[in-house]
Amino acid sequence: NRQIIVAELPQGELTESHYKLQDAPMPEPGDGEVLLRTVLMSIDAANRAWMQGASYRAAVKAGDVMPTYSISEVMKSNSPRLKEGDLVACEGEWADYITMPAHKCQKMPRVPRLENLLSVFGIAGKTAFHGLIQVGQPLAGETIVVSAAAGSVGGYVGQIGKALGCRVVGIAGGPEKCKWVVDHLGFDACVDYREAGLFKALRSECPNGVDVYFDNVGGDVLEAVLALMNERGRVACCGAISQYNTTNPSGPRNLPGAVVMKRLRMEGFIVMDFARDDEKATRALQAWVESGAIKVEEDVVEGLENAPKALIGLLAGDNKGKRMVRVGAD
Ligand code: NDP
């Protein structure tokens, strides 16, 4: 049973030296517990944020096995809730096998592509759906801007926005990604934030201003978009990836000024806040996937041992769509 522990907490940039792969004994499930074999591990920007301190979950500490949202198969069950062969989602670990109280596992359907349980029907799709619709509240014809547009959450936000009849402008790193966001995902435009002149480039792609900004990155990009928001605009604060992997965070200088003058609503949210509407999200996403309105992009890295590289790469922007690690054969 291999597992990857956090050898040391990063101060600035996360590197492979912050992790260590080690062998551990095969765990034995106790009363009410199950033995799980990890099948797929979600690689999320949030994994890095968890290493910065306590948030909506406890902080990750040095010596911990790295936590991850994962899809696993029940190998042995000491609980009537689950049986051998069941597929579950839970907050697992970067490990081949773990034990878990059965009540902390959510039974999952054996869909044709298990990867979809982490992408469009997983946290990424639900975050995009709830955050855009319930927090951003876009109306047809309005302009939506979304950052980390080629990533998993951002890619769905833009495609949902198009399905709702909005103008959608993405922000992503590099010309190749921006072209892909337009040509492949169908956004109206995409602006490269690594190029100088982000504000001007965005302004020319948003001739009617910005009504909804779905913010995945915070920092300087947020500052530029705030300056283009229309009166009564909504900013759905989903995450701040530009601030997770640095010792030198930068924030928007036009806060609270822009919010006051333009009567903006900035609202943070965590996907779990909307759990009661998850079924509705899944039904809507399924219909859009079936009609072709939403393309499902998955970026699968093979092998538990490659999880550190996969997370470091995600923070550097080398993923398109939902990144995950396949640990075992499904
Ligand atoms: P993504 O698949 O979007 O990958 C992250 C992307 O962020 C990278 O591909 C990279 O693309 C971009 N990025 C990295 N650094 C920067 C930077 N300094 N400035 C701008 N963009 C950057 O990851 P996730 O889907 O896991 O996460 C996206 C966001 O959603 C995160 O902020 C995360 O915390 C948040 N989130 C929030 C949830 C909630 O409940 N509130 C739930 C799930 C996710 P590029 O090449 O374009 O730079």
TrEMBL record:
Keywords: Oxidoreductase. SUPFAM superfamilies: GroES-like, NAD(P)-binding Rossmann-fold domains. GO terms for molecular function: oxidoreductase activity, acting on the CH-CH group of donors, NAD or NADP as acceptor. Residues 12-325 form the Enoyl reductase (ER) domain. The keyword Oxidoreductase applies. InterPro entries: ADH-like_C, ADH_N_2, ER, GroES-like_sf, MDR_fam, NAD(P)-bd_dom_sf. This is NADP-dependent oxidoreductase.
